[in-house]
Amino acid sequence: MKQKNIFESAYTCLIESSVDQKVHLLAQLQEDWAEGKFDFSPLNSVKRIRDPGRPEKPELVSPKALPKRRLGSPEGHAALMHAIAHIEFNAINLALDAIYRFQHMPMDFYLDWLGVAGEEAFHFQMIREHLSHLGYEYGDMPAHNGLWMTTYETDHDPLIRMALVPRTLEARGLDVTPPMIQKLRAIGDKRGVEILKILLRDEIGHVDVGTRWFRYLCKERGLNPFKTFQEVIETYYHGDLRGPFNYEAREQAGFCAEEISWLKTLNPVQT
Q1: d(CA 60, CA 44)
Q2: From start to end of the chain, where are the E strands?
Q3: Which CATH architecture does the domain made up of 71-266 adopt?
Q4: What is the DSSP letter of 2?
């Protein structure tokens, strides 16, 4: 039997616009991997992807154009869950893009990011179901595209991608999720609290995957990981990297003592 190409299969899943079909194709990717059906020969060319596969809705707007809603209102409650659903859907595409784009990495790199993609899809489906219980569907509210734009801007180098997407943008989830859990607990959303606890646990692992491969690439290139991480932030990160930071979760996700000390200088009022 002729083997499938892992990079072609990841690309097909990445550009699929139907939410349900994307989740189905991802499950097939995982099944094919488990059965050893993949060939890992690099493709002749790799396409830049300005827009990955996604449904027509949600409408994408600038972050400043997103309406402000109070969490205490039904609309505000749903808006928070919708925003999280959008992040998790984007994260599926982020992981698939890492597989498709960087075709000269060790096999464990692809196994790691396929695992991340599967967990992100699980998260998305949980939040989507919870959102439905609140009377809304994914796409009912506008969203922003900042996460994917950073992915697009880092498509030329896996080291920069690992530093900026999992270790910076996704690491922000480690910082903001505990306060969101407290807010959902305050309004009595027990299921929302359960879901966010699962997300926090799994996202620590996802950031750790980014940390591991960032350090692998630094070692391969003879670079100092701490200095290189700082340089990537200064060059590519839009905006200020500021706290409060979840230092404990970041340590669990592979941030070294030197990095934690540096983050504390960016947020000196936090103990």
Answers
A1: 33
A2: 4-5, 38-39
A3: Up-down Bundle (1.20)
A4: P
